[in-house]
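Next comes this protein.

***
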Amino acid sequence: MTKDPISRRRFLKTSALGGTVAAGATLAAPAVLAQAPIVLKMQSSWPSSDVFQEMAAQYVERVEAMSGGRLKIDLLPAGAVVAAFAVQDACHDGLIDCAHTVPVYWYGKNKAASLFGTGPVFGADANQMIAWLYHGGGYDYYRELTQDVLGLNIVGFLSFGMPAQPLGWFKNEITDASQIAGLKYRTVGLAADLFQSMGASVAQLPGGEIVPAMERGVIDAFEFNNPTSDMRFGAQDVAKNYMLASYHQASESFEYIFNKDKFESLDPDLQAILKYGVESAHLANFAMAMNQYSSDLEKLQKENGVNVKRTPDSVLQSQLDAWDKILPPLMEDPLFAKIVDSQKAWCERVVFYSLQNAPDYKLAYQHYFPNKI
C-alpha cells in the first residue's frame, strides 16, 4: 500500500512492449509448411470414354482419400504418353510411374503372362482366381515372371475379377463351332492361339481400334470385354449378334503396374496404400460392373435391336477341346507348366467346395422370373 501506484500510461506502455517481444518471438519461430503431395503419373490402356477408365478413377480416388492427400495420381488415357499395349515398358523405363492395364497385353514377351487373366479354364471363376494369387502362390509366380524371367523393374498387383467375357459380336448368330472357322476375329493373348486352333484368323487390336477395323473389313467378328465397353465404342453399329458366355477369357483381372524404384522410394504407409487400395478398388469395380453391364445389356437389346444369345454348350465344349490341343506344347516351358499345375491344383480343391456348396441360382431366378431365360 505504500508503493507508488502504477500509472495507466506506464502499464499500457509496458504491455505494448511485452506484446511486441511476444510477437517477435512468434515471428522468429520457423514456419511449418504443409507437405506438398507426391504426384504419380499413371497411364491406362483404355480410351477416356471407356468404363475401364472410370474404374481406374475409382482406384485413384481411394488412394488420394486414404493418403489424406499426400499421394495424388494423374490418370491419363491410352496414347497420352505411349500406346495402349506399351504401358509395361513405359513403367519399366520410368516414362510413367504406374499403369492400369491387363497382363494379356504383354503376353508377346512370355505366353505365361496370359495365365494371369486369359488362360485355360479349369472350372474357377475370376474371383476364385484372384484368391489363387493370395493363397495359391499366384503372386510368387507373377513376381518370378516379371522380375526374374523378364528382368522388369516393376511391381504389380491384380484386382477386379471380371465377369467371363462374351464370345463376341458376329454378323450371323453362332449356333455351331464350325462357324468360327474362316472368320477374321479380334481377340488377345492365349485366346488368339485358341481361336486359331478353331480355324479363325486372329488380329490382336486395342479396344479403340476394333470398330474402325470392322468397318474397313480388316476383321469380321470380335470380342472385347463387356456390354458397357462394347456399347460405348459402337459395337452395335457394326454387328447385331452378341453371343454371351465363352471359355476364351473367363477369368481376367486388371493389373496395376508401378515402376519399382518409384514405388520403393515412397514411405512404407504410402506403399501400403497403393497396394491395398487395389483391394478396395476390386469391390468398387465389381459393384460398378454389375450395375452398368446389366443396364447396358438391356439397352443393347431394347434400344439398339441387338440379338443377345447365350453361346451354345456345343461351342463351349469345342473351346475346351481346343484348350486341350494348344496346352501341351506350351507346357514345355517349365514356368508355364508350374503355373498351370498350380492353378489346376487350386481349382480342383476350391471349385469342388464352391460347386458342392452353392445352390442352383438359375433355378431360383426362373422361379421368380419365369420365361425370362
